[in-house]
Each structure stands twice: as C-alpha cells, then as structure tokens.
C-alpha cells in the first residue's frame, strides 16, 4: 500500500461522484454527480465553483470538446452542451434493451470520438449493457455487449491500447486500438479483480503506460503495469473512490471522485470524507486525454 498526502478538493458528499476531467486551458477540474444530474467545476487558482444541471436526467459521464463545449452522456442520449449559454443539442441516442438502464462511464478516445457504456441500474445487475462509440456526425457503433456495468475507459499514451472494465465482472480488458479509424480489436483479459482487491471502476493512464484504476469496493486506487501486474495501491480516505484523473500544470496531480451510495451509517461515521473529491501528488504525469471533434 502506498501512502500519499491527501487534499480535499470538494467536501460535498455526492451520492455518486464520477468522471473527474481536467480542463487545462481553464485550469479547472470538472466532475459529475450522476444521480443529481449535475456537472461541477472547480477552478484551482481561485477556488471558484460552478455547476450545471440537467433536470430529470442522470449524468453518467462527459468529455471536453475541441469547440469548448461538453459532450454529455445522459440516461439514454448523448448531448452537446455549451456551458456559457446553457444551449443543449442532442447528438445521438441509444435504445436500451430493457427499462431501468442508463449510460455510465465515458471518455473521449485518441480518435476524438466519444466512447460510453451502459449498465443495468437495478440492485441486481444483469449483463444487458453495451459499449458504444459516438462519432462527430452522431453515428453510433456498438463495440461489445453483455456487460453488467460498463466502466474504466482509458487509453495508453501511444493510443494503441484501450482499457475497459465491467465493475461486476469484475475484470479489466485491453483492446488493440486504431486511432485513425476508432476500431478496437484483439480483445484480451488484462486483469481479474475481487471485492477485496477492488472492483474496477473509472481509470486513467500515466505517461509510462501504467493504468490507474479505482478499486471502489476496497477503497483504493490500483496501479497496474502495462502487462497487467498489480504493482501499487493507494488508500483513499474518501472510502469509495470511483475514478482518477491527472491534472494541474504538470499533470502530476491525481484527482479522485467517490460515492456514498449504499454506504451504511456506521461507515459514513467512520469515513467522513466519503462521497467527496480529493487529490494527491503522483510523481508521474498523466497521459493527455483527447477532445471530441464535434
């Protein structure tokens, strides 16, 4: 286990805090509160906070666009959102195979398309989710199906490997990725996890090609070598970490969101930072994340 000095970015207790995303030109961290249907922003230099709401929706994830907009995965639609004006435009929709499903973890890939997965939103999960690629023209490509909770999207720094997990698999897979076409192929099992090791949630890669994966059930961020060996574990005081991302001017600060959903009152009392957003210094820079070309 690795110990790092932790800082609290936001003490706000989210039911499901997710998708931390570093916005370098504006020097701010963005994240979403899934069940509240909100996207939050924190400007590091000033401490200023902003918030945008999507009434009646769940915000599963989002990404930055080259245009300055956000691409946002809602319950079953993917929208382009202009933060300054509040303008929203539906780019694509997916048809879930059953009720009580929603879109979940998403990220912009090296091909500048948006990848997002779906999940069974009931207490007992069934493998009815899929992983989608959303192009700038709104076309939707299904990469794979049969998932309980699609999660953990990340790409190696050279863009040639895509990581993807099923939190209830619980496993992480690696795919050969073609950044020119957005094609993912030659899927292989990268790591198999347990509740004790940490079911794999959101993920990010560093510049050396190591995968940092939130092990939600174990309260850790796991660090894997490119060949799938679990090398390090960072214990997180926000108890149920959901996703790491790299940020700050040197890209060496790791920001980590967390959740408080289904946490007992005893666990809440023992872990007052549960559901908060925290940060620590990694000593290594993160791999940059692309922006959606739409």
Question: Explain this structure to me?
Answer:
With 294 residues, the protein is mostly beta strands. The protein has a single domain, classed as Neuraminidase. Helix content is 2%, strand content 50%. It has one helix and 24 strands. The protein has a four-stranded antiparallel beta sheet with strand order 1-24-23-22, with no helix packed on it. It has a four-stranded antiparallel beta sheet with strand order 2-3-4-5, with no helix packed on it. Strands 6-7-8-9 form a four-stranded antiparallel beta sheet, with no helix packed on it. The mean pLDDT is 97.
Q: On the 0-100 scale, what is the average pLDDT?
A: 97
Q: How many domains in all?
A: 1
Shape: globular
What oligomeric state do the depicted chains represent? single chain
Q: Helical residue percent?
A: under 10%
In what order do the strands lie side by side in the largest sheet?
1-24-23-22
Largest sheet: 4 strands, antiparallel
Uncertain spans, ≥5 residues at pLDDT below 50?
none
Number of helices: 1
CATH class: Mainly Beta
* Second-tier CATH architecture: 6 Propeller
- Name of the CATH superfamily: TolB, C-terminal domain
Structural class: mainly beta
Whole-angstrom Rg: 17 Å
SSE pattern = EEEEEEEEEEEEEEEEEEEEEEEHE
Measured between the Cα atoms of the first and last residue, the distance is: 41 Å
Strand percent estimate: over 45%
Q: What is the fold named in CATH at topology level?
A: Neuraminidase
Q: Let me know the number of strands.
A: 24
Offer a concise description of the structure.
With 294 residues, the chain is an all-beta fold.
């Amino acid at each position: 286990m690795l110990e790092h000095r932790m800082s609290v970015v936001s003490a706000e207790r989210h039911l499901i805090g997710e998708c931390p995303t570093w916005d370098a030109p504006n020097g701010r961290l963005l994240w979403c509160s899934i069940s509240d249907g909100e996207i939050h922003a924190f400007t590091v230099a000033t401490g200023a906070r902003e918030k945008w709401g999507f009434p009646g929706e769940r915000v599963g994830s989002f990404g930055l666009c080259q245009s300055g907009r956000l691409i946002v995965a809602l319950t079953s639609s993917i929208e382009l959102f202009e933060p300054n004006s509040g303008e929203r435009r539906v780019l694509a929709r997916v048809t879930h195979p059953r009720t009580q499903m929603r879109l979940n973890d998403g990220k912009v890939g090296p091909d500048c398309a948006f990848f997002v997965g779906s999940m069974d939103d009931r207490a007992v999960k069934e493998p009815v989710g899929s992983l989608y690629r959303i192009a700038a023209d709104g076309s939707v490509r299904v990469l794979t199906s049969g998932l309980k909770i699609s999660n953990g999207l990340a790409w190696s720094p050279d863009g040639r490997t895509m990581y993807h997990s099923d939190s209830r698999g619980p496993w992480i897979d690696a795919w050969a990725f073609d950044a020119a076409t957005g094609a993912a192929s030659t899927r292989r099992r990268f790591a198999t996890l347990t509740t004790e090791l940490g079911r794999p949630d959101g993920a990010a890669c560093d510049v050396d090609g190591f995968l940092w994966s939130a092990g939600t059930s174990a309260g850790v961020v796991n660090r894997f070598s490119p060949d799938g060996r679990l090398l390090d574990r960072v214990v997180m005081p926000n108890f149920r970490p959901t996703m790491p991302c790299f940020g700050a001017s040197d890209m060496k600060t790791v920001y980590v969101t967390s959740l408080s959903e289904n946490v007992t009152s005893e666990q809440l009392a023992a872990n007052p930072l549960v559901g908060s957003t925290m940060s620590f210094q990694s000593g290594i820079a993160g791999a940059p994340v692309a922006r959606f070309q739409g």
